[in-house]
Design a protein that fits this description.
Helices cover 30% and strands 22% of the residues. With 362 residues, the chain is α/β, with parallel strands linked by helices. The protein folds into two domains: 214 residues, 3-Layer(aba) Sandwich (Rossmann fold); 88 residues, Alpha-Beta Plaits (2-Layer Sandwich).
């Protein structure tokens, strides 16, 4: 069953439930030897996509394959792909070991494999205990053990960190990285980038059933530019000195500071010292990955306002006037370049080329 591939390919995948389009023209690939994060807000279509990949839901259009085959064509699928879509499929009065033995018999692996996977997920001491008494985190581990019974090439996991404590999350991160290092494939879904960003190599971000970003995680990181806010004694003098030193991405701010992008605190300090300009403080700011995630996925489900607050967006009553209130989440609904220009460009100043957080629009 280990043919050296383990490649997942999703091509133009679409699923409609009546009038609702849960997944729309979704395409991405997951290569062996990597951990890919499948990210998006709740309701973005992640679980529906995984269920189509695992043969549990029939696509309206498009294909989802493993090793170039659809799930029902894999022969003994449990020997190729292990999956965890929920952690509730346990008989509450059956021990963890007996639960695994039942599944082992179903897929044709020996009983001793149950003890092996209990050891892999750290549940050996609890193997005799009834699953009904397990915590949420222990149920997650038992579900993962079940997925590993067939020694699969591919792991497909839906929210595997749910219920794990910090130690469990660290353990899961190490386990998934080790699994991928063996040349195997991991596709793990989550709704928060911060949960998996230390684990994954590439990322698929979806919202409203559509792809918002697909590519290496490092490319996503590199799209974010940092800037340094400087409080100098002479803002104009520092700006001039920086430009003379070849640091040209310099802008004054409304509070009298200077915003400098594309350089470091040390370089700015050296220039200021050479120019004889006192500096009273410097603050480095970065747009983090979670902020970009919100920017790419916001707007699918806008929350209703609290009682007494003006209605905005999709929750406004028909015919009701929209209050002209600033949107606190507007920075996540713009491109990085728009955000940079809105926050750091002086009123009336014309936009300059090649400015912005990321230098490109997603």
């Amino acid at each position: 069953m280990h043919d050296g591939s383990g490649r997942i390919a999703v091509q133009n995948l679409t699923k409609q439930f009546g009038a609702v389009t849960a997944v729309q023209n979704l395409s991405f690939t997951v290569e062996p030897g990597s951990v890919t994060g499948f990210l998006g807000p709740n309701g973005a279509g992640k679980t529906t996509t995984l269920r189509m990949l695992l043969g549990l839901v029939r696509p309206t259009a498009g294909t989802a394959t493993i090793n170039g085959r659809q799930h029902h064509e894999l022969g003994n699928p449990a020997r190729v792909v292990g999956s965890v879509l929920d952690n509730g499929s346990f008989h509450p009065k059956r021990s963890a070991r007996d639960h695994l033995r039942v599944y082992a018999a179903a897929i044709g692996v020996p009983d001793q494999r149950a003890d092996e996977v209990l050891g892999l997920v750290g549940l050996s001491p609890a193997g005799h205990r009834k699953a009904g008494g397990f915590s949420l985190g222990m149920r997650q581990r038992l579900a993962l053990a079940t997925a590993l019974l067939g020694d699969p090439q591919v792991l497909v996991l839906d929210e595997p960190a749910n219920g794990l404590d910090p130690e469990g999350i660290a353990w899961l991160r190490t386990f998934l990285r080790s699994f991928a290092a063996q040349g195997r494939t991991v596709l793990v879904s989550s709704h928060l980038l911060s949960e998996v960003e230390q684990t994954i190599d590439q990322v698929v971000i979806v919202s409203a059933g559509m792809t918002r970003y697909f590519g290496p995680l490092e490319n996503l990181r590199q799209s974010q530019r940092s800037r340094v806010l400087v409080q100098p004694a002479d803002a104009s003098g520092l700006a001039t000195a920086l430009r003379e030193a070849g640091i040209t991405d310099v802008e004054p701010t409304a509070d009298g500071r200077v915003a400098v992008a594309g350089t470091t605190v040390q370089q700015i300090g050296d220039v200021a010292a050479k120019a004889g300009i006192a500096v009273y403080g410097m603050e480095e700011q970065k747009a983090d990955l979670e902020q970009l995630f919100f920017q790419l996925t916001s707007g699918q489900y806008a929350g209703a306002p609290l009682p007494g607050q003006p209605a905005q967006g999709n929750w406004a009553q028909p015919g009701a006037p929209q209050a002209a209130q600033p949107n606190p989440y507007a920075q996540y609904q713009q491109t990085p370049q728009q955000t940079y220009q809105q926050n750091y460009q002086q009123p009336g100043q014309q936009p300059q080329p090649n400015q912005g957080w990321g230098g490109q629009q997603q």
